[in-house]
Amino acid sequence: MPDERFPRGERLLKRVEFKRAEKDKTVRLVTRHLVIIAAPNDTQHTRIGITASRKIGTAVRRNRVKRLLREIYRRNKVLFPKGHDLVLIAKNDMTDTSYHGLLAEIAKAMGSCTWGKPFS
């Protein structure tokens, strides 16, 4: 059974880490509901940071979006590239999307990218 935990070492927690990912980004993917920023890191595992601003809606909606994104990462770690910091930025209201719809959107975006090439 694959490891479905989401330990502290796989999270971006501090503002400095989010800023570094933005500054050192090599990939920027834009989907209907998300902007995904990726930057290489010094570890052998993926680290994830999730942001949901007030334009998403109330705190209840923002927390739901963050829970959905954490769950997608936790259960589908093979979709995400090793050795990268990923920042998932929720773009707009996601009340019309489901877990499976968002998973398909992320899988398509992750598969469409060449992870070794530098951002330009």
Residue runs with pLDDT of under 50 for 5 or more positions: none
- Which secondary-structure class do the elements indicate? alpha+beta
- Give the overall pLDDT as a whole number: 89
CATH topology, what is it called?
A: Ribosomal Protein S5, domain 2
* Strand order in the largest sheet: 1-2-4-3
In CATH, what is the class? Alpha Beta
Domain count: the total is 1
User: What is the element string, with H for helices and E for strands?
Assistant: HEEEHEH
Main β-sheet description: 4 strands, mixed
- The CATH architecture can be given as 2-Layer Sandwich
Radius of gyration: 14 Å
Number of strands: 4
Count of DSSP H/I helices:
3
Percent of sequence in beta strands: 15-25%
Quick one: overall form? Answer: globular
Q: What is the first-to-last residue Cα distance?
A: 39 Å
Brief rundown of the structure:
With 120 residues, the protein is α+β, with helices and mostly antiparallel strands. The protein contains three helices and four strands, in the order αβββαβα. It has a single domain, classed as Ribosomal Protein S5, domain 2, CATH 3.30.230.10.
